[in-house]
Amino acid sequence: MTILDIAHLRLHHQAIAPAAIMSPGDVVRRLGAIQAQDYLGTLWALGLRMQQAVEVDIEQAIANREIVRTWPMRGTLHFVAPEDVRWMLALLTPRIIARAARRHQQLELDEATFIQSETVFAKALQGGKPLTRPEIMAVLEQAGISTKGQRGYHMLWRAAQNGLICYGPRQGKQDTFVWLDDWLPAGKSLSRDESLAELARRYFTGHGPATVQDFIWWSGLLTADARAAVEMVTAELIENVVDGQTYWVSPTESGPKAPSPTVYLLPGFDEYLLGYRDRSAVLDPAHAKKVVPGGNG
């Protein structure tokens, strides 16, 4: 295997070439999660991986609760499958919440305020009515909780990290929020080890060939946890060493496909770039700052 082979195999495993997946839900199941802070760009990212798709199909999948937008990893919005939301949040968010403590202190957001805001969210959202962000902010203010600066955003973020709320369907150009337990049926319950193994399995199936360091970057896991997760699934993966670096990949293909003459237009924040710590297989480091300013988009 060569570096060029890695680029070609990633196109296949990410379902870009060929675009063979039938539904948005199956796209996010294949990749584990799709980065989603740019809403319209993410519709493109999902459609790119489907045999046939138009924007309304993907928005209908959101309304039908076939895919869910929330903050499961790295404190960043992603689309995930509904049955995966709760175990991913339980596995990944405690570390993210802990890392946000200093910012919350700067915003004068203590645990009592978070509990108070979550009580307000429950009263406003339970029963299945989606509310837009301005409507949610107004409800908080009416309850005497200031939303100035980024306080409102961080209260929403924290409630989502705690598995209480998630994004609902858009109303025009406005995001909405819903009460998670009303919006989604109970998902599968996994132990911590089962969650680690499943996350690694999804990542290397939908992103391989990739390294353990790539998985650490994507998941936000501690190095020890990520290594343990990979160890749990190595029997299901193929190991390749390229230029002294170990790559893991799902054995769904016997070898790299010949390069396609097709040009694929990727949206910003696409998993083909953002899903890896080391992007040199698909992007010359000399041009990286021009394509991905700051390394995040």
Describe the structure.
It is built from 15 helices and eight strands. With 297 residues, the chain is mainly α. It folds into two domains: 120 residues, Arc Repressor Mutant, subunit A (Orthogonal Bundle); 101 residues, Winged helix-like DNA-binding domain superfamily/Winged helix DNA-binding domain (Arc Repressor Mutant, subunit A). It has a three-stranded antiparallel sheet. The protein starts with a helix and ends in a 6-residue tail after the last helix. The model has no long low-confidence stretch (mean pLDDT 93).
Can you tag this structure with a few keywords?
297 residues, mainly alpha, Arc Repressor Mutant, subunit A, 2 domains, three-stranded antiparallel β-sheet, 15 helices, 11% strand
Set down the secondary structure blueprint.
Elements (H helix, E strand, L loop, with lengths): L2 H11 L10 H8 L2 E2 L3 H10 L6 H9 L4 E6 L2 E5 L4 H15 L1 H6 L4 H15 L5 E2 H10 L8 H11 L3 E3 L8 E4 H4 L8 H16 L4 H8 L3 H11 L4 E5 L2 E5 L21 H4 L13 H4 L6
Helix pairs in contact: 11-13, 12-13
In brief:
This protein is mainly alpha-helical.
> For the report, how would you describe the main beta sheet?
3 strands, antiparallel
Helix content: 40-55%
Computed structural class: mainly alpha
Instruction: Assign the CATH architecture of the largest domain.
Output: Orthogonal Bundle
The dominant shape is globular
Number of helices: 15
DSSP, total strands:
8
Q: Main sheet: which strands, in order across?
A: 1-3-2
The poorly predicted ranges are none
> Averaged pLDDT, please?
93
Domain count: 2
Radius of gyration: 20 Å
CATH class of the largest domain: Mainly Alpha
Looking at the structure, the CATH topology of the largest domain is Arc Repressor Mutant, subunit A
Q: What percent strand?
A: 5-15%
Query: Could you give the order of the helices and strands?
Result: HHEHHEEHHHEHHEEHHHHEEHH
Distance between the termini: 28 Å
